[in-house]
Design goal:
about 35% helix, alpha/beta, Rossmann fold, AB_hydrolase_fold
Length: about 260
């Protein structure tokens, strides 16, 4: 695999942004690695999103995602979005526009990445799990599968925990986001009503996680709506040991064609 550490100008944010990208490399003599690359030279891509207290470096620092992706010939794009909840902030920058519109176009202009729905996937943990579900449910035509790990599925239910960040992003705790474009429960209903094909969904949360009850409510909501959902839980809490194991499972689960 090749690792790219990229700084680039974002029109949506109005500043220089950062991302890490790992690209498949076909190797024969590299010791301890099974590395593959697409014969078409347009790589299938996983957009991998970070949580509230982290940045674009965290998945490489805390997990073996590069090793897991290598054997499947999967490119991985890891952008930095600060503490934005992947949202066009009420009092701040347009991170939803950045991650949902600008980032994929820029990545495909920089690197040989496929633009086909069946070759594009999104995953993330905690705040990144919220961003994952928001992308998958808002733009089902772009992603074949999405995996939310220990996700914030109901920001309003956790508003007190996120404090000023919540106020800056969504406009204040007195502002109801239920029923809006920020509400994952509503987005799931709207997608079902639209008749568009939803991505395959994977959801994980540990029973000791402070987000567990919210995840169970969202799981049950998806199942009532008839979504194709792979759900996993265990006794873990909110930590990188479980996310390392889960991202390995997610990459194995992804419906990569001819892999």
């Amino acid at each position: 695999m090749a690792l790219m550490q990229v700084s680039f100008y974002s029109e949506a944010l109005g500043v220089t942004a950062s991302m890490n990208v790992i690209l498949p490399q076909q190797t024969r003599s590299q010791i301890g690695m099974d590395s593959r690359a697409s014969e078409t030279r347009l790589h299938p891509t996983l957009y991998l999103l970070h949580g509230l207290s982290d940045d674009h470096s965290i998945w490489l620092r805390r997990t073996s995602v590069e090793r897991y992706a290598a054997s499947r010939g999967l490119a991985v794009v890891m952008p930095a979005v600060n503490r934005s909840f992947y949202t066009d902030m009420k009092y701040g920058a347009k991170y939803w526009t950045f991650v949902s519109e600008e980032l994929p176009e820029l990545c495909r202009s920089f690197f040989p990445l496929s633009d086909r729905r069946e070759d594009n996937f999104v995953a993330g943990n905690s705040m990144g799990g919220y961003g994952t579900l928001k992308l998958a449910l808002s733009h089902p035509g772009r992603f074949a599968a999405a995996a939310a790990l220990s996700a914030v599925t109901d920001p309003a239910a956790q508003a007190g925990r996120f404090g000023e960040d919540y106020d800056l992003i969504f406009g204040g705790r007195e502002e109801a986001i239920v029923g809006t474009k920020h509400d994952l429960f509503t987005l799931a209903e709207q997608l079902r009503e639209s008749g568009d094909e939803p991505p395959k969904l994977y959801q994980y949360c540990g029973k000791a996680d402070f987000l567990y009850d919210d995840n169970v409510r969202f799981r049950d909501h998806l199942l009532r709506l008839g979504y194709e959902l792979t759900y996993e839980e265990d006794d873990n809490d909110h930590n990188w040991a479980c996310w390392d194991e889960q991202i390995r499972r997610v990459i194995e689960w992804l419906p990569l064609q001819n892999r």
